[in-house]
Design a protein that fits this description.
Keywords: Membrane, Transmembrane, Transmembrane helix. The chain crosses the membrane at residues 29-47, 53-72, 84-103, 115-133, 140-157, 163-180. The chain is an all-alpha fold. It has one domain. The protein has eight helices and no strands. The chain has helices at residues 3-12, 16-48, 53-71, 78-102, 105-108, 113-135, 138-184, 190-196. The longest helix is centred in the last third of the chain and has 47 residues, at 138-184. The radius of gyration is 29 Å and the shape is elongated.
Length: 197
């Protein structure tokens, strides 16, 4: 190979770190999307004050599919893949049954609607974490942990909004008070200050 061919080939090959980073982000996309959808479901429930029954069921089924697809390339043989599908299906059916128990009318009377969204997110987080543990998948376990951490974070943020609002009103009030005081003070001109001296 000549030196010109080496330079030509070096210029046409894409840099390796960009493709590795892009591939890594592409592989993490389903987990990030599931986390965003779960938090969006709680936010919508808190704003609309209506539980999203079908939404949580869809999200649980979507995470079931993500769990199966995560381990699918590692499983070899028809029996192993069927066992993967059945164990995940039974796991997520149990999660769905528990979610529907929480959405039953008798239980709903005991819980306010915003709390229902947090309870469903907690159940989804627990189911996701346990699925990650049983599959030995760090990404799925982390997704479950992130959903679980989001529950107290959302609750704290909801309670803190009132304090943030009070703090903002206090700062605005102090700002207006100092601004009005500054405007009420007589302006001293340089001529007046020289005459007083």
């Amino acid at each position: 190979m000549t030196e010109i061919d080496v330079h030509r080939n070096a210029g046409t090959e894409p840099p390796l770190p960009q493709s590795v980073t892009g591939r890594f982000l592409w592989q993490q996309l389903p987990y990030v999307v599931a986390l965003v959808l779960a938090i969006a479901g709680v936010a919508y429930t808190n704003v609309s004050h209506q539980p999203l029954v079908g939404y949580w069921e869809f999200l649980a089924l979507a995470i079931c599919v993500v769990c199966i697809m995560t381990k699918w390339p590692e499983t070899q043989g028809r029996d192993t893949r069927l066992r993967l599908i059945w164990t995940q299906a039974l796991h997520w059916i149990a999660v769905l049954v528990t979610m529907n128990i929480m959405l039953a009318s008798g239980v709903q009377q005991l819980l306010p609607t915003p709390a229902t969204g947090l309870v469903l997110l907690t159940l989804l987080a627990l189911g996701t974490f346990l699925a990650g543990v049983s599959l030995l998948s760090l990404q799925i376990s982390f997704l479950g942990l992130a959903m679980g951490v989001a529950v107290p974070a959302i609750s704290w943020l909801k309670q803190s909004v009132f304090f943030f609002l009070l703090g903002a009103v206090l700062l605005i009030g102090l700002g207006i008070t100092f601004w009005l005081r500054r405007d009420r003070q007589p302006a001293t001109s340089p001529m007046n200050s020289e005459m007083e001296a």
